[in-house]
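Hello forum,

I keep getting stuck at the same step: I have a sequence, I want structure tokens, and every attempt I make locally crashes halfway through. Rather than fight my setup again tonight, could one of you with a working pipeline run this one for me? It's a single chain of 379 residues.
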Amino acid sequence: MLKFELFKDNGREGDGPEADQSRLGEITTDHGTIQTPIFMPVGTLGSVKGVSKEDLDHCGAQIILGNTYHLYLRPGCEVIEPMGGLHKFISWDKPMLTDSGGFQFFSLAKLAKFTDEGVNFQSHIDGSRHFFSPERAVEIQTVLGSDIMMSLDWCMGHPATEKQTLEALNKTTAWAKRGFDFWQSQGGKNNLFGIVQGGMYKELRSLSAQQITAIDFPGFAIGGLSVGEPTDIMYEMAHHTLPLLPRHKPRYIMGVGTPENLVTLVGMGCDMFDCVMPSRNARNGQLFTRQGTVNIPNAKFKTDERPIDESCGCYTCQNYSRAYLRHLYKTKELLSYRLNTIHNLYYYLDLMAKIRHAIKENRFAQFKWDFFAERNIKA
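Reply #2:
Ran it on my machine without issues. Output:
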């Protein structure tokens, strides 16, 4: 079972969005410990695109994500279960989190129909019909064997009316209760997190947080952010909702975000993040550095002998020039995806390590100021 220990919590009731509310902690699972705040690389199909387990170790990955919807369709539980679960199947011996499929039903809305019982959907692969109930979502994730499982939820995009958002919230709460009861009836294996919804309405966020935190989940997530809303609204919703979650349990904001998002939301008291951005942007030639983003296809890098970031300790920066990385990208060499992804993942995970160090030394506020100043961005 999950154990969460807070070593430092700077949050105070009533703090404004600019106050330092950062937290330093540790999550212990059956597959190891996770130092928080943490960024979790996304491995949709049991693979973080373009990189190996050894690459992930080099980058400092403590936990990765798997996608329940996609893994259910391919290769399927009938393959993963006899292989000993997802950890053994993909040769990953550290913690793993799986989502419930709720975000995929949102993003593939034309193929999904929500009912009181769950979600009827068509496979985006072959059109075959399937059904996820909150119980089935837990059952599949139990077969996968993830250390942290997520409740089935209904994620709303932006914009959405208050009536639509309330309907999704009510279903999310009902499904959370059913999923939790089923999880408990099966022995409470691994750990199930509840998800707070409520769209861009503060009163609905408060209502959802009240209802979901009344259930004794081992941890809580905030869903339905970074779904098309402006960044300032996303921050407003996060700042409103985070203090409504229990202080003694992990707080996870799903699907967020940019390096700037991570630094800002750590300052609001968030412990866990995930996003496809570092790997997806790597495949599109966008590389993160402490000064900002480098677009490697740019012609000015054609004969640039420097690494992507001269202060970076990743394998890519220690061995390859911008000119070579540009050449690989322009010629569509597969090595481009691997080297770019190694760099971006290393950057994200190193950023989180530096954040943890700053919190430990009581200087996160200064770290945040320096971080944005180096990018010429107002914090």
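DSSP finds 15 helices and 16 strands in the chain. If your local run keeps crashing, start a new thread with the error log.
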